[in-house]
Structures are given as structure tokens and as C-alpha cells.
TrEMBL record:
Highest taxon above the source species: Bacteria
GO molecular function annotations of the record: N-methyltransferase activity; nucleic acid binding; S-adenosylmethionine-dependent methyltransferase activity
Every Methyltransferase small domain range: 31-126
This protein's UniProt keywords: Methyltransferase, S-adenosyl-L-methionine, Transferase
GO biological process, one term: methylation
The name this protein goes by in its record: tRNA1(Val) A37 N6-methylase TrmN6
Lineage, uppermost ranks: Bacteria, Pseudomonadati, Pseudomonadota, Alphaproteobacteria, Rhodobacterales
Amino acid sequence: MIETSENAFLGGRLTLRQPLKGYRAGVDPVLLAATIPAKSGQSVLELGCGVGTALFCLAMRVPELSLAAVEVQPTYAALARENAHANDIVADIREGDLATLPDDFRLRLFDHVIANPPYFDRTASSPAANEGREVAMGEGTALSVWVDVAARRLAPKGYATFIHRAERLPELLMHVGKKLGSIEILPLQARAGRDAGLVVLRARKGGRADFRLCAPVMMHEGARHETDGESYTPEIRSVLRDGAALAFGSNKK
């Protein structure tokens, strides 16, 4: 039995158990959830759900979704199921490799497929000491497989949305461009004057719209961290505390 902690998300509206050691969800899956243009009654599949952070944050914002997910680590999949029950969320969470989805998942098409793939290519970086963190952060399954599985499981006109490190964007674009269209990129910039560290990529099955590189979203106020406490911009604070949506570029209201 591993040690866990209970952590509040979305201003306390969502409480998740996660391992004390190993991969622990931060703001990235919350931001991913905020960008999903889902509507009530639609279906969502998450590839690599961890303890369920992104999927359940989305469920808190958009009611009556049909939720499914796959997670390769048994401990995290079990915690995701417990977290769904504890937060009164109905979700079909399966333990398994995304490259070999359960048969009934492979027979379904989804309106949205979302993913926060491992960020680090281990041919060019060192593995983490903790196994749970390494599986979550070190790329064991090629990024091309994540994209291929997402594209195969999308319904016509469905959306795939990924969050990834900015330096992996060329590779992600290469794979997505072969499978999906209407690609949009939302850069996430830590502070003014800094390069974007993360990007959210959204693409559509059968989409024909022009490529869009949206204006970056600023995460923190000020050029550097100068005081104790958080320094999130009002837009990001609203996402993290209130579960607000995070729109792409000209889609902002």
C-alpha cells in the first residue's frame, strides 16, 4: 500500500487522492481540461489519466459527459476509480496500455480525446528515480502512438487535445498533421519576456480550417516572482480556482 495525500483542486470543488511520492498532478492537467470545448451529452476519452485530474476537472465544468480513460499504472488507475467515486463522478477507468486499448474502447468513437503525454524523450534525458514518476514523465510509448490512437478513436469532426512541452511541438505537429486537420496551438507563457514553456494543441478529425497559432496565455503576473504566495494572472486564477474555461485566441469572450 502506497502513502497518499488528499489534495484540493478547483478551489476545493474537487478532491483527489494521489501518491505522496512519484508523479503528482500540478496545474498542467487542470489547464488541459480547461481548453476542451466539450458540451453536455458528449463523450470523452483520456489517454493516460493518472489519478483522473484532467478528466474530473472537465467533468466539474461540463455536466453529463460520458467519460472514459485508460491508465497503464495499476496504482494510479485504482486511485482514479476511487477519486471518481469520492467526487460522485461516473467514469469508466481501465487499467491498460493505450497502444492496446480494451476491446470495447476500440469499438467506440469519442467526441473528444485528451492527453497529457510524458514530456521527456529519454534518449536525450535522464530517468526519474521513482518508478511512478518515470512512467508518467518519461516517454515509454512513442508520441506517434499517442497521436495515432487518439485519431483512431475520434468520431468524425471530433477533437483531439494535447498538452506538451514547447520543445516537443515540431514532433507533435508532424504526427498530428498526418492524421488530423484544423490544427490550433495555444502557447502557455510563464511570465512576460519569457518563451512559452508549454503548448496546448487541438486538432479536428476531418477538419479543413487553416492552421492557427494563437496569442500566448500569460500564466503569472510580473517579469519575475518577487513576493510570497501565488502570482497567477486573473485568467489563470479563474481556471485553477473556479474551473473556468480557457479559450483559444479569438474564441475568447
